[in-house]
Structure formats: C-alpha cells, structure tokens
Amino acid sequence: MWAGYGQRVWIGDRLARRLAGLPPVLVDAVLATAIIGVTLWIGTGYRFDGFREFDAQAYVLTVLVNAPLAVRRQAPVPVLLASGAALAWFLASGYVPSLNLFGPLLAMYTVAAVRPLRIAALSAVYTAAVLLYSGMAVHLYSPAFAAAQALVTTAVAWVFGTGARRLAERNERLLELAATLRHEREERARHAVTAERIRIARELHDIVAHHMSVISVQSGLARYVLPTNPETASTALAVIAGASHEGLEEMRRLLAVLRVGDAEQSDDTRPYDPAPGLARLGDLAERIRSAGVPVDVVTTGPARPLPPGADLCAYRIIQESLTNVLKHARPARATVAVTYRPGDLAIRISDDGAGSPARPAVPGQGLMGVRERARLYGGSVTARARPEGGFEVTLTLPLGHPGPDTVRTGQEEHR
Question: pTM of the predicted model, to two decimals?
Fold first, then answer.
C-alpha cells in the first residue's frame, strides 16, 4: 500500500515540475479550454426547471465568460471585467447562474495575486456585485443571503490570491537573497585568492632574499680571495652552489603546491621536501655561518612538534632576521634563542653588530612581513635596537594544544 502511495506522489511531483516548466499562456489556455468543455457538457446534459434551455446563445456566452482566462496572468483586470460582463449577460438571459461562476472567481483570484491592494479591492467590489446579481437571479434566496454568499465567495478568492502574492514576493526576496549570498561568496573567494597570492609572494620573497644574500656575500668573498687563496674561494663557491640549489628546491616545492589538481601537470612526479621548519634550523644557521656571520642556536625546554603553519612561520621569521644581520649588521655575531613554554613558543634573534644607522628606526618591508606572519598565527613580534648595541627581534607564538608542563632543562648550543 505504501509503495503504491509513494509511487503516486513521485508521479505527481514529476507532473508538477513539468507543468511548472511550460509557458504560462499555454497552461492558462488549456485551463480555459477545460472549463469551457466541462461547462458545455453540464449545460447540455442536464435540464433545470425554471431556467432557459442551454442553447446556441448559451454556448457563445460560456465561451465569452471563460475564454479570457487564457491571458489572465498577462491582463488580469481586463480579463475580470470581460468575464464578469459576459456572466452578467448570461444571467440576464435566464440561464442557470451556477454554470459559469468559476471564470470570474478565477479572474478575481488572479487580480489579488498579481496586482496592488487598491486595484484588488476595486476588483473585489466588482466581483461581489456580479455574484450578488447571480444570487438574486435564482429567485430562491433572500437579498441578505445572496449578499452574504457573494461576499464570502469573493473573500475566499481574495484570501487565496493574496496568499499567492505574498508567497511570490517571499520567493522573489529569497532569490534576491540567494543572489546576494552568491555574490558575497564570490567576493570571499576572490579575497581568498588575493590573500593566497600575497602569501605566496611573501614566501617567494623570503626564499629569494635569503639565498641571494648568501650568494652575494660568498661571491664577493670568492672574487676577493681567488688570486691569493683558491681553497677559500672554492669553499665559497660550494656554499653558493648549495644555497642556489636549496633555494631552487624550495621554489619548486612552493610552485608544486600551486599545481596540485592541475590536469596538465601529470608528468612531474618527483617528490618534494616538506615545508621547512625548526627541524632545519641547524642547516640555516650553518649556511649563515658559512656566509661569514657566527650564529649560536640556544634551545630551552623540551622541543615538541608544532603545527605546520606555525613551524614554517617560526622558521621564516628566523630566516628573515638572520638575513638582515647578514646584509646590514656585519661584522656581527648572532644568537637564536628558542624557548618552548607550556602555552607558547618564544624566539629571540639578536646580534651585536653596529649595522646601518637607519636600521633600527626604519621598519622595512621585511619587518612588516614578519609581523604579518606572526599575526596570521596569533603571535606577536617586537623589533628594537639593543642598549648595549646591535638589534633584537622577539617572536611569541601561542600553541593551541600545549604539552605537559615543561621546566628549564638547560641550554643546547650549536656552534
């Protein structure tokens, strides 16, 4: 039983969707034709005592009453006026009043559904007058009963039409809201793309700036000592080769991330190293040392894994700070102090170089990028000139899921 009911519901839904996709004029024309056919069939098949026989004139008037319904949504008020006038003619000719009442009522419903309240109210008065005349033509009802019947019938058509209008207005507002939400979603997508481009540009800047700084220093050293100390020049060239190779590999890794999901990139299947983090801090320090800046790395507290984003953020900020020491503060000695605390990670990069006089006072693009990186992960960065000389950058990154309480276990220095 339930299977049959479900099948009937499914068939009804399919039929409703198909009808909704048809042109309104076609649907209304079919409806008007059906009403005319049913009315002619009833009027011809039955005889009603006391009323005029359903003859050729009744056929014509029935068509005049109901045929305008074919364009009821395009011209609702003229359709109501024409249908009501034809019904009044039908009633005045002495035919059975109830045969053609449906046409004016459907026209009244349409006016209430698609026209403003003032026009709908005037149309309701007109419809009620036609229906009152229909009730009085029967000669069986009292004027009060005929008036009540006319008012109730008109009110029912009004209520249903008003409900349809409100539903249509609500659907229109929902469509507008959906369009607004779609536009906002597209705007958010564009903003996300812009933010990702900025992040990639910052990442490329950090990679290129750091490795080119090392290459620049080492190439200058190699050119200076080549005539007198070929061994030192060879070491400098080896550092240049390593720095350039690592820089290219990091850029390839970053670009490979951009190509993920691209159907045209199926040939290059080489694995790339994961994004750098504090685990590669020793390699970074060694590269800076080879460029001529001694670096001490001091770790306090038990090291623990960091989220990938925070790990990369810490590494890049240390890289940017050491690159600035290499470019602006030589001769200098740098210290990187990494402290793992219960709820956060603190990193201090300091140097004892004199550097450029403008360096402490003018925060460049690099320092702005460092602060933006830290804010992205809920951290903060301070940069200041040290009273005893040199410069200091301090980074604090909150860790959302701190491990067990840690205690200071000593210092691990890498020289």
Answer: 0.46
